[in-house]
Amino acid sequence: MTSIQEQLERTRPVADRAAATVPDSRSRFISLRSSDGKPDGVLAHAHVMKTAGQTICDILRQSFPGDHCDLQGRHVATMADLRLAARFYPRLKSIASHCVVPAGDLAAVGDWFRFFTFLRDPVRRCASHYQFVRRRTKTSLDFDTWLEDNANYQTRFFAREANADQAIEVLDGLVGFVGLVERFNESLLLLRRWSREPALDIHYRSRNMAKDNRIKKELLADPQVVAKIREHHAEDYKLYGYVCDVVYPRQVRQYGPLLEADMAALESRLPARRTASLARTLASAKRNLLYKPIARRLIKRRAAVPRGD
């Protein structure tokens, strides 16, 4: 089996061309589903803000210690971002990040990336997102202004514009699995089945949970605010409705009759016990002391270089 570095070098011309464009039609999409169902390729978590992404990332870290990468990039990951990651993670098994978007360079690499993602009810996701930004910036950010800038967030993450039909094409053409935050434990079981990765350990402890949900509760308790959020997320609700009505039920059917029993077994072992291992300690050191600082410095340096006309 070729290494991830060799695959990236083979696809350099294709990816360099793809980086100059954003996919805007079905003909540009490359299906990443393996025809024989084998787990060939790298699991790629397309992390939409406030969709339990830190918990999922921790699951990947514990499943593939030293071979999972919290990919660093600006907006949408580039081939340069992938090549750098491959230097630190030559046996790459999974990636996760807000910059892991099924478009451009990542799509051009082809079967090496098996995209999956999680969606969330748009109103609740929006309220959590705003609360997160307020807490992080520690400023009195005007909600109406922020809402205008972040309308239809999930749709734009996939389509790069507020077009639910386009986002649905991306999910159907490029994303192999879509989970739902509202059915999180069940989604993890479906994810494990889809991934066909024996090492994927879905036992978890929730991560990045807000200690104070006052801001979110105030937003959700006001009917006028909720109506305003829904108005600004009409395309998101089309996308979310499609996943709830079409994609997710199909994944449940594919799992088979043991889903209820497996759910009971999983939930009986949650939350997972805190465990430490040398492999995870070394992986954390590589991630936080080597890869992330170097990657962020190089990304900042590339961003500072003026582009030609």
Mean pLDDT across all amino acids: 88
- Structure classification: alpha/beta
Question: Which CATH-level-2 architecture?
Answer: 3-Layer(aba) Sandwich
Would you state the CATH class? Alpha Beta
The low-confidence parts are: 14-38
What can you see in these coordinates?
This protein has 309 residues and is of the alpha/beta class. The chain has a single domain (18-298), classed as 3-Layer(aba) Sandwich (Rossmann fold), CATH 3.40.50. It contains 15 helices and five strands. It has helices at 4-10, 12-18, 53-63, 79-88, 104-108, 122-137, 143-149, 153-159, 164-174, 184-195, 214-220, 223-231, 234-255, 259-267, 278-304; strands spanning 42-46, 68-70, 94-97, 113-119, 175-180. It has a five-stranded parallel β-sheet. α6 (122-137) packs antiparallel against α11. Residues 14-38 have low confidence and may be disordered.
Secondary-structure topology with pairs:
Layout: H1 4-10, H2 12-18, E1 42-46, H3 53-63, E2 68-70, H4 79-88, E3 94-97, H5 104-108, E4 113-119, H6 122-137, H7 143-149, H8 153-159, H9 164-174, E5 175-180, H10 184-195, H11 214-220, H12 223-231, H13 234-255, H14 259-267, H15 278-304
Parallel strand pairs: 1-3, 1-4, 2-3, 4-5
Helix pairs in contact: 1-4, 4-15, 6-11, 8-9, 9-13
Features of the shown structure:
15 helices, 8% strand, alpha/beta, Rossmann fold, 309 residues, 5 strands
